[in-house]
Amino acid sequence: MAWILNGTIINTPTYVIINNTRYPQTIFKKWSHEELASLGIYAFRDDGYDKRYYTSTGHSDELVDGTMVRSHTTVKRYSNTELSQIIADTVNRKIKRLYMNAKSELEYLNEFDSSDTTSATNWSDYIALLKSAREAIKSDIQDISSYTDAIDYINGGFGSRLPSEPGR
Fold first, then answer.
1. Which SS3 state, helix, strand or coil, does residue 31 take?
2. pTM over 0.90, yes/no
3. How far apart are CA 107 and CA 102, in angstroms?
């Protein structure tokens, strides 16, 4: 049996100090659950999860019928190949949106404002920069090996690879 005291799991009975009073390890065998609870010590159960297929992103503890029960929030664990594909798909969608916006700007300039050759050149250059950024990002993706790294990369890491839009 395991116990929990102030968020610390006690797997093996040992002495504890609570409010400057030292309690011997024998309290875990001799005292009732109610007596231990009066000191803030509760029986502990971790509901767990299948670590082969999931990764814990956090947990919460809840007192249920005198036992502190730990529940985990989890996300699916992916192989590196699956993870790379998820990141690549996400990044490609973002780059595609940027590319389509840039192409629209360039088409507008070519059709309605052909005198603004500087802007047209800037947008053409931007499109070329987007294409090279995509290649750099593909290289970055190969180095990502954990779910946390993947989320960090998707939420901002790859943004540093993207060029700024002309005039912005």
1. coil
2. no
3. 9
So where are the chain's domains?
2-76, 80-161
Q: Map residue 26 onto helix, strand or coil.
A: coil
Chain centroid to CA 46: 22
Strand bridging mode 67-76 / 41-46? parallel
Handedness of CA 132, 95, 168, 113 (dihedral sign): positive
What would the pLDDT profile of 73-94 be if each residue is shown by its tens digit? 987 777 777 777 877 787 788 8
- Identify residue 33 by its one-letter amino acid code: H
Distances (CA, A) of 76 to 55, 70, 141: 6, 19, 19
The tens digit of pLDDT for each residue in 119-161 reads 667 878 888 888 888 787 877 777 776 767 777 777 777 667 7
